[in-house]
Design brief:
This protein is of the alpha/beta class. It has 13 helices and 13 strands. The chain has two domains: 119 residues, no CATH class; 207 residues, Spore Coat Polysaccharide Biosynthesis Protein SpsA, Chain A (Alpha-Beta Complex). It is globular and about 65 Å long. The N terminus is likely disordered.
Length: 380
Amino acid sequence: MAAVGRSHAGCGRRVASGAVILLLYLLCGIAALYQLAALIAAVKHVLAREKPPTRFPKVSILKPVHGRDDAFFEAALRSHTQIDYPDYELLFGVGGMDDEAVPFVRRLSATVYVRKDHTSNAKAGTLIELSRHAKGEIIVVNDADIRVTPDYLQRIVAPLEDSRTGLVTCLYRPVPDGIPAMWESLGIAVDFAPSTLVAPLVGINEFGLGSTLCFRAEDLREIGGFAAVADYLADDYQLARRITTQLGKRSVMSTRIVDTGIGYKRWSEMWSHQVRWARTIRVSRGDGYLGLPVTHAGVWVALALLCGLPMVAAGLAVLRMLTGFVAGFVLLRCPQALALPLIPVWDIWAFGAWIAGLRGDSIVWRGRRQRLSPDGRLLD
């Protein structure tokens, strides 16, 4: 009887082991399909060509700035004064005239406005003030540390000539300062960029990045202005969601890529930013957040190796590195993406941030700890 019991136990372990291997095959297959979709999306974006504009409506660029004073930041602001476009205005907004960015903005001979409205999202409060003074038919909003090229406005305004388009946004190329920033730059290039490009292929239309949001002033008024998103952490996503869902219009990813400066003095600062990013995604798109681990192919590569499936691991790793290379280097021209063996390692790091983001309702933003509601609102 004891022998029969041991036989049954051994059989049960073999069945359980077989089920685990089968599940791992399934997960690796799903991860491979995702990487293939991201690779196709990246190649399509590399080959895409936009039509030149046929009209040049007045554009208002709204730039909230806050407390930075370094070489890249100054170059980013100055680049907006060198845009080749016949009719645009540049409006800067600050929380107060004591902000350390104000002296440089004034050297650009630009107009500076001070935020008057108290909002949970200070950036949105600044945008409310700037929108009161904007005279453009088209509104462009981008983060303070975004550096643009002279053809920037021509490239992002042109898609709005199609009435079905409500929003134009841009991918961004990280310009790191320091080793922790270089590590995050790798993630932006080989993880974030491909996931953004693949979103339209899986039916996600409500995407908009803080690197660029370009839309019609009348559409902004119709969705309730910036006040409608003033209590949310992810104001860029919320704005895009309202334009696409409430107005039934589409979001378009421009082929124009902008630069953004990234700098961290400590690894802990970068990790805190990663967790804040993860929690932002969780409260903005909870369904999508739960599916994020499938994009972390490096995790499944490691598990496949541990389970004695070297060929499965090698195949998935090669596909993952190819996708990261095309999206990160061929498209974004980000040199960190050339560190191909580190791409699966980044996935394991990102999976850790995903786990950290599963719990917790607080984030640290601009040195201030704030709580998040389940729907992504900032709670004072």
